Amino acid sequence: MKYTIKDIAKMAGVSPSTVSKILNNYHDIGEDTKKAVLEVMEKTGYRPSYSAKALATKKSNIIGVIYAGKINADFNHPFFVDVINAFKKNIGEFGYDLLFFSNEKFASSKGDYLSRCRHYQIDGCIIINGDDIEASIDELDHSEIPCIGVDLPLSGKTSGYVTTDNYQVSAKVVEHFYLLGCREIAYIAGNPKSVVSNLRTEGLERAMQKFGIPFREEWVVHGDYFEESGYEAMKKLLSHGEVPQALFAASDLMALGAIRAIKEEGLRIPEDIAVVGCDDIDAARLVDPPLSTVKQDKEKIGKLAAYMLRDLMDKRTDSCSILVEPELIVRQSCGAKSRDGSNRVPVRQTGP
Protein backbone atom coordinates (compact mmCIF):
# COMPACT_ATOMS: atom_id res chain seq x y z
CA MET A 1 0.00 0.00 0.00
CA LYS A 2 1.22 3.48 -0.88
CA TYR A 3 0.69 5.91 1.96
CA THR A 4 0.19 9.66 1.70
CA ILE A 5 0.85 12.50 4.12
CA LYS A 6 -2.87 12.49 4.96
CA ASP A 7 -2.67 8.79 5.86
CA ILE A 8 0.32 9.35 8.13
CA ALA A 9 -1.38 12.36 9.76
CA LYS A 10 -4.56 10.37 10.44
CA MET A 11 -2.67 7.43 11.93
CA ALA A 12 -0.57 9.72 14.15
CA GLY A 13 -3.54 11.86 15.17
CA VAL A 14 -2.12 15.10 13.80
CA SER A 15 -2.79 17.42 10.87
CA PRO A 16 -1.14 16.95 7.44
CA SER A 17 0.60 20.33 7.91
CA THR A 18 2.24 19.02 11.08
CA VAL A 19 3.61 16.01 9.18
CA SER A 20 4.88 18.34 6.46
CA LYS A 21 6.68 20.52 9.03
CA ILE A 22 8.36 17.47 10.54
CA LEU A 23 9.52 16.31 7.11
CA ASN A 24 11.04 19.75 6.47
CA ASN A 25 12.74 20.04 9.88
CA TYR A 26 10.65 22.84 11.35
CA HIS A 27 11.56 23.53 14.97
CA ASP A 28 8.11 24.49 16.31
CA ILE A 29 6.90 20.90 16.70
CA GLY A 30 6.95 19.23 20.12
CA GLU A 31 9.23 16.23 20.66
CA ASP A 32 6.37 13.90 21.59
CA THR A 33 4.43 14.80 18.45
CA LYS A 34 7.53 14.42 16.31
CA LYS A 35 8.30 11.03 17.85
CA ALA A 36 4.74 9.79 17.24
CA VAL A 37 4.81 10.80 13.58
CA LEU A 38 8.26 9.30 12.96
CA GLU A 39 7.16 6.01 14.54
CA VAL A 40 4.17 5.82 12.17
CA MET A 41 6.42 6.62 9.20
CA GLU A 42 8.86 3.90 10.21
CA LYS A 43 6.08 1.36 10.78
CA THR A 44 4.48 2.03 7.39
CA GLY A 45 7.76 2.49 5.49
CA TYR A 46 6.54 5.88 4.31
CA ARG A 47 8.87 7.94 2.12
CA PRO A 48 7.89 11.49 1.13
CA SER A 49 7.49 12.35 -2.53
CA TYR A 50 10.65 14.13 -3.60
CA SER A 51 8.86 16.37 -6.09
CA ALA A 52 6.23 17.29 -3.50
CA LYS A 53 8.90 18.16 -0.97
CA ALA A 54 10.74 20.30 -3.54
CA LEU A 55 7.50 22.08 -4.40
CA ALA A 56 6.78 22.78 -0.73
CA THR A 57 10.28 24.03 0.14
CA LYS A 58 11.02 25.62 -3.24
CA LYS A 59 14.36 23.83 -3.03
CA SER A 60 15.32 20.73 -5.03
CA ASN A 61 18.84 20.21 -3.67
CA ILE A 62 19.93 19.55 -7.25
CA ILE A 63 22.85 21.28 -8.97
CA GLY A 64 23.00 21.41 -12.75
CA VAL A 65 26.33 20.57 -14.39
CA ILE A 66 26.84 22.06 -17.84
CA TYR A 67 29.78 21.73 -20.18
CA ALA A 68 29.40 24.89 -22.25
CA GLY A 69 30.88 24.26 -25.65
CA LYS A 70 30.64 22.43 -28.93
CA ILE A 71 34.07 20.81 -29.17
CA ASN A 72 34.52 17.13 -28.42
CA ALA A 73 36.25 17.64 -25.06
CA ASP A 74 33.20 17.39 -22.82
CA PHE A 75 33.98 15.72 -19.47
CA ASN A 76 36.50 13.16 -20.74
CA HIS A 77 39.44 15.57 -20.38
CA PRO A 78 41.46 14.79 -17.19
CA PHE A 79 41.34 18.42 -16.04
CA PHE A 80 37.54 18.57 -16.10
CA VAL A 81 37.19 15.11 -14.52
CA ASP A 82 39.32 16.12 -11.53
CA VAL A 83 37.57 19.47 -11.09
CA ILE A 84 34.10 17.92 -11.22
CA ASN A 85 35.08 15.15 -8.80
CA ALA A 86 36.31 17.74 -6.30
CA PHE A 87 33.16 19.80 -6.82
CA LYS A 88 30.93 16.74 -6.39
CA LYS A 89 32.65 15.76 -3.15
CA ASN A 90 32.31 19.20 -1.58
CA ILE A 91 28.84 20.15 -2.82
CA GLY A 92 27.64 16.71 -1.70
CA GLU A 93 28.67 17.56 1.86
CA PHE A 94 26.15 20.42 1.68
CA GLY A 95 23.38 17.95 0.76
CA TYR A 96 23.21 18.47 -3.01
CA ASP A 97 23.07 15.99 -5.88
CA LEU A 98 24.24 16.64 -9.45
CA LEU A 99 22.30 16.56 -12.70
CA PHE A 100 24.45 16.49 -15.85
CA PHE A 101 22.91 18.32 -18.80
CA SER A 102 23.23 17.17 -22.39
CA ASN A 103 25.04 19.54 -24.69
CA GLU A 104 22.52 21.95 -26.20
CA LYS A 105 23.48 20.81 -29.68
CA PHE A 106 22.13 17.32 -28.87
CA ALA A 107 19.16 18.38 -26.74
CA SER A 108 17.57 21.20 -28.73
CA SER A 109 14.15 19.57 -28.51
CA LYS A 110 14.27 19.97 -24.73
CA GLY A 111 14.82 23.72 -24.88
CA ASP A 112 17.73 25.93 -23.90
CA TYR A 113 19.69 25.60 -20.67
CA LEU A 114 17.61 28.13 -18.72
CA SER A 115 14.28 26.51 -19.57
CA ARG A 116 15.63 23.07 -18.66
CA CYS A 117 17.04 24.36 -15.36
CA ARG A 118 13.63 25.78 -14.51
CA HIS A 119 11.92 22.56 -15.58
CA TYR A 120 14.07 20.50 -13.18
CA GLN A 121 13.84 23.16 -10.44
CA ILE A 122 17.64 23.42 -10.31
CA ASP A 123 18.94 25.29 -7.25
CA GLY A 124 22.19 26.33 -8.94
CA CYS A 125 24.58 25.50 -11.77
CA ILE A 126 28.26 24.89 -12.33
CA ILE A 127 29.24 25.75 -15.91
CA ILE A 128 32.51 24.39 -17.30
CA ASN A 129 34.10 26.42 -20.07
CA GLY A 130 34.51 24.83 -23.47
CA ASP A 131 35.19 26.39 -26.86
CA ASP A 132 32.55 28.21 -28.89
CA ILE A 133 30.12 28.93 -26.03
CA GLU A 134 26.40 28.71 -26.82
CA ALA A 135 24.47 31.96 -26.68
CA SER A 136 21.99 30.61 -24.13
CA ILE A 137 24.73 30.44 -21.48
CA ASP A 138 24.56 34.24 -21.23
CA GLU A 139 20.79 34.05 -20.65
CA LEU A 140 21.31 31.50 -17.86
CA ASP A 141 24.14 33.60 -16.39
CA HIS A 142 21.83 36.63 -16.05
CA SER A 143 18.83 34.68 -14.73
CA GLU A 144 17.65 34.20 -11.15
CA ILE A 145 19.52 30.87 -10.92
CA PRO A 146 22.89 31.11 -9.11
CA CYS A 147 25.74 29.97 -11.35
CA ILE A 148 29.46 29.37 -10.95
CA GLY A 149 31.72 29.25 -13.99
CA VAL A 150 34.97 27.30 -14.16
CA ASP A 151 37.35 29.01 -16.58
CA LEU A 152 34.31 31.02 -17.68
CA PRO A 153 33.97 34.67 -16.55
CA LEU A 154 30.28 34.90 -15.67
CA SER A 155 28.96 38.38 -14.85
CA GLY A 156 25.34 37.96 -13.68
CA LYS A 157 24.13 39.37 -10.36
CA THR A 158 23.85 35.89 -8.89
CA SER A 159 26.87 34.42 -10.66
CA GLY A 160 30.57 34.04 -10.03
CA TYR A 161 33.56 32.19 -11.40
CA VAL A 162 36.82 30.53 -10.40
CA THR A 163 39.74 30.03 -12.74
CA THR A 164 43.48 29.58 -12.82
CA ASP A 165 45.39 32.82 -13.37
CA ASN A 166 46.04 32.10 -17.03
CA TYR A 167 48.32 35.10 -17.52
CA GLN A 168 50.58 33.62 -14.85
CA VAL A 169 50.47 30.20 -16.51
CA SER A 170 52.29 31.60 -19.55
CA ALA A 171 54.46 34.03 -17.59
CA LYS A 172 55.95 31.25 -15.47
CA VAL A 173 56.76 29.16 -18.54
CA VAL A 174 58.42 32.02 -20.43
CA GLU A 175 60.50 33.02 -17.40
CA HIS A 176 61.71 29.44 -17.01
CA PHE A 177 62.61 29.18 -20.68
CA TYR A 178 64.46 32.51 -20.45
CA LEU A 179 66.52 31.32 -17.47
CA LEU A 180 67.43 28.20 -19.43
CA GLY A 181 68.73 30.39 -22.23
CA CYS A 182 65.91 29.66 -24.66
CA ARG A 183 65.09 32.51 -27.05
CA GLU A 184 63.20 30.52 -29.69
CA ILE A 185 59.83 29.53 -28.27
CA ALA A 186 57.02 27.74 -30.09
CA TYR A 187 53.48 27.51 -28.73
CA ILE A 188 50.64 25.05 -29.23
CA ALA A 189 47.54 27.01 -28.22
CA GLY A 190 43.95 25.90 -27.76
CA ASN A 191 41.02 26.84 -29.95
CA PRO A 192 41.14 30.60 -30.78
CA LYS A 193 37.48 30.85 -29.65
CA SER A 194 38.47 29.68 -26.16
CA VAL A 195 38.66 32.36 -23.44
CA VAL A 196 41.36 30.40 -21.61
CA SER A 197 43.45 29.88 -24.72
CA ASN A 198 43.32 33.56 -25.63
CA LEU A 199 44.36 34.61 -22.12
CA ARG A 200 47.33 32.25 -22.21
CA THR A 201 48.34 33.49 -25.65
CA GLU A 202 48.14 37.10 -24.51
CA GLY A 203 50.11 36.25 -21.38
CA LEU A 204 52.75 34.52 -23.50
CA GLU A 205 53.16 37.53 -25.79
CA ARG A 206 53.46 39.95 -22.87
CA ALA A 207 55.99 37.79 -21.04
CA MET A 208 58.11 37.32 -24.17
CA GLN A 209 58.04 41.07 -24.75
CA LYS A 210 59.16 41.63 -21.15
CA PHE A 211 62.20 39.37 -21.63
CA GLY A 212 62.98 40.64 -25.11
CA ILE A 213 62.11 37.36 -26.82
CA PRO A 214 60.66 37.65 -30.34
CA PHE A 215 57.10 36.35 -30.73
CA ARG A 216 56.92 34.55 -34.07
CA GLU A 217 53.44 33.98 -35.49
CA GLU A 218 54.64 31.02 -37.57
CA TRP A 219 55.57 29.26 -34.33
CA VAL A 220 52.03 29.43 -32.96
CA VAL A 221 49.71 26.52 -33.88
CA HIS A 222 46.26 25.74 -32.49
CA GLY A 223 45.00 22.43 -31.16
CA ASP A 224 41.97 21.18 -29.20
CA TYR A 225 43.65 20.25 -25.87
CA PHE A 226 43.84 16.56 -26.84
CA GLU A 227 46.87 14.46 -27.71
CA GLU A 228 46.32 13.94 -31.43
CA SER A 229 46.00 17.68 -32.07
CA GLY A 230 49.30 18.23 -30.24
CA TYR A 231 50.95 15.64 -32.45
CA GLU A 232 49.63 17.24 -35.64
CA ALA A 233 50.56 20.74 -34.42
CA MET A 234 54.14 19.70 -33.66
CA LYS A 235 54.49 18.02 -37.06
CA LYS A 236 53.36 21.29 -38.63
CA LEU A 237 55.85 23.33 -36.59
CA LEU A 238 58.74 21.08 -37.53
CA SER A 239 57.75 21.11 -41.20
CA HIS A 240 59.02 24.71 -41.45
CA GLY A 241 62.59 23.38 -41.37
CA GLU A 242 63.53 25.20 -38.16
CA VAL A 243 63.63 23.59 -34.74
CA PRO A 244 62.61 25.88 -31.86
CA GLN A 245 64.60 25.63 -28.65
CA ALA A 246 61.48 25.33 -26.53
CA LEU A 247 57.81 24.39 -26.79
CA PHE A 248 54.92 25.36 -24.55
CA ALA A 249 51.72 23.37 -25.07
CA ALA A 250 48.50 24.73 -23.52
CA SER A 251 47.58 21.27 -22.18
CA ASP A 252 49.54 18.23 -21.05
CA LEU A 253 47.71 16.02 -23.53
CA MET A 254 48.85 18.23 -26.42
CA ALA A 255 52.36 18.19 -24.98
CA LEU A 256 52.32 14.38 -24.96
CA GLY A 257 51.31 14.39 -28.62
CA ALA A 258 54.07 16.89 -29.39
CA ILE A 259 56.66 14.71 -27.64
CA ARG A 260 55.65 11.79 -29.86
CA ALA A 261 56.12 13.93 -32.98
CA ILE A 262 59.48 15.25 -31.75
CA LYS A 263 60.79 11.73 -31.14
CA GLU A 264 59.65 10.59 -34.58
CA GLU A 265 61.90 13.30 -36.05
CA GLY A 266 64.86 11.89 -34.14
CA LEU A 267 65.13 14.92 -31.87
CA ARG A 268 65.98 14.76 -28.17
CA ILE A 269 64.04 16.22 -25.24
CA PRO A 270 65.18 18.52 -23.67
CA GLU A 271 68.59 18.71 -25.41
CA ASP A 272 67.08 19.72 -28.77
CA ILE A 273 63.69 20.98 -27.61
CA ALA A 274 62.60 21.75 -24.06
CA VAL A 275 58.90 20.97 -23.53
CA VAL A 276 56.40 22.29 -20.97
CA GLY A 277 52.72 21.40 -20.78
CA CYS A 278 49.85 22.61 -18.62
CA ASP A 279 47.46 20.90 -16.13
CA ASP A 280 49.75 18.39 -14.33
CA ILE A 281 47.69 15.31 -15.18
CA ASP A 282 48.86 11.92 -13.92
CA ALA A 283 50.30 10.95 -17.31
CA ALA A 284 52.77 13.86 -17.13
CA ARG A 285 54.84 11.91 -14.59
CA LEU A 286 54.85 8.71 -16.66
CA VAL A 287 55.98 9.91 -20.09
CA ASP A 288 59.68 9.63 -21.05
CA PRO A 289 61.13 12.05 -20.16
CA PRO A 290 58.72 13.14 -17.38
CA LEU A 291 56.88 16.25 -18.50
CA SER A 292 57.46 19.67 -16.98
CA THR A 293 54.11 21.38 -16.60
CA VAL A 294 52.16 24.21 -15.06
CA LYS A 295 49.99 22.71 -12.35
CA GLN A 296 46.41 23.87 -12.12
CA ASP A 297 45.13 23.11 -8.62
CA LYS A 298 42.11 21.11 -9.75
CA GLU A 299 41.13 20.03 -6.23
CA LYS A 300 41.14 23.65 -5.04
CA ILE A 301 39.21 24.90 -8.08
CA GLY A 302 36.47 22.28 -7.56
CA LYS A 303 36.26 22.98 -3.84
CA LEU A 304 36.12 26.75 -4.31
CA ALA A 305 33.39 26.34 -6.95
CA ALA A 306 31.30 24.32 -4.47
CA TYR A 307 31.70 26.81 -1.62
CA MET A 308 31.12 29.83 -3.84
CA LEU A 309 27.96 28.32 -5.33
CA ARG A 310 26.68 27.35 -1.86
CA ASP A 311 27.17 30.96 -0.72
CA LEU A 312 25.39 32.33 -3.78
CA MET A 313 22.43 29.99 -3.31
CA ASP A 314 22.20 30.88 0.38
CA LYS A 315 22.50 34.59 -0.46
CA ARG A 316 25.62 34.88 1.69
CA THR A 317 27.41 36.73 -1.08
CA ASP A 318 26.82 38.53 -4.35
CA SER A 319 28.67 38.01 -7.63
CA CYS A 320 32.25 36.95 -6.95
CA SER A 321 35.41 35.72 -8.68
CA ILE A 322 38.64 34.03 -7.61
CA LEU A 323 41.92 33.52 -9.46
CA VAL A 324 43.90 30.44 -8.41
CA GLU A 325 47.69 30.71 -8.57
CA PRO A 326 49.35 28.15 -10.89
CA GLU A 327 52.59 26.34 -10.02
CA LEU A 328 55.42 25.45 -12.39
CA ILE A 329 56.45 21.80 -11.91
CA VAL A 330 59.90 21.25 -13.41
CA ARG A 331 60.70 17.71 -14.53
CA GLN A 332 63.20 16.20 -16.97
CA SER A 333 61.55 17.48 -20.16
CA CYS A 334 62.70 20.98 -19.33
CA GLY A 335 65.60 21.71 -17.01
CA ALA A 336 65.17 19.24 -14.16
CA LYS A 337 67.94 16.90 -13.10
CA SER A 338 68.11 13.48 -14.70
CA ARG A 339 68.29 10.27 -12.71
CA ASP A 340 72.11 10.40 -12.73
CA GLY A 341 71.98 13.85 -11.09
CA SER A 342 73.24 15.85 -14.09
CA ASN A 343 71.42 18.96 -15.28
CA ARG A 344 69.44 18.32 -18.45
CA VAL A 345 68.91 21.66 -20.16
CA PRO A 346 68.85 22.71 -23.82
CA VAL A 347 72.38 22.90 -25.22
CA ARG A 348 71.53 25.13 -28.18
CA GLN A 349 71.51 28.69 -26.89
CA THR A 350 71.30 32.00 -28.69
CA GLY A 351 71.39 35.55 -27.44
CA PRO A 352 72.44 36.66 -23.94
TrEMBL record:
It comes from the Bacteria. Keywords: DNA-binding, Repressor, Transcription, Transcription regulation. The keyword DNA-binding applies. CDD domains: HTH_LacI, PBP1_LacI_sugar_binding-like. Transmembrane segments: none annotated. InterPro entries: Cro/C1-type_HTH, HTH_CRP, HTH_LacI, LacI/GalR-like_sensor, Lambda_DNA-bd_dom_sf, Peripla_BP_I. Residues 3-57 form the HTH lacI-type domain. The keyword Transcription regulation applies. Residues 1-44 form the HTH crp-type domain. Pfam families: LacI, Peripla_BP_3. This is LacI family transcriptional regulator.
